[in-house]
Specification:
Radius of gyration: 15 Å
Shape: globular
Structural class: alpha+beta
Number of helices: 2
Largest sheet: 2 strands, antiparallel
Strand order of the largest sheet: 1-2
Distance between the termini: 40 Å
Length: 94
């Protein structure tokens, strides 16, 4: 379970949203999302259950409404015209 997985910060998780995206390579999508929200990435080192230090790369401080907007912009292709403003916690036109 998530309680033993460093990807999930060794804690339980609750699913809050799912999105259907079609015709998009999932690896490219993941890279896009990581790059787009990189300024909001959680900077944390945890120890896994074997005592090894792990720096998770999958967690970002981003409000749900910004994720929803990013998904919509990925769908319509306009994401390339936007960036994420960490200080204002919003998407902004470039």
């Amino acid at each position: 379970g998530s309680e033993t997985d460093p990807t999930f910060l060794m804690a339980g998780v609750n699913l809050v949203a799912t999105y259907d995206l079609f015709g998009i390579d999932r690896k490219k999508l993941e890279k896009l999302i990581h790059r787009f929200f990189s300024s909001a990435r959680l900077k944390l080192e945890i120890t896994d259950r074997f005592g090894r230090p792990i720096i998770p790369q999958e967690w970002f401080f981003v409000p749900l409404n910004c994720i929803e907007e990013a998904v919509d912009r990925i769908k319509d292709g306009s994401i390339v015209d936007y960036c994420y403003n960490t200080k204002k916690a919003c998407l902004e036109r470039r």
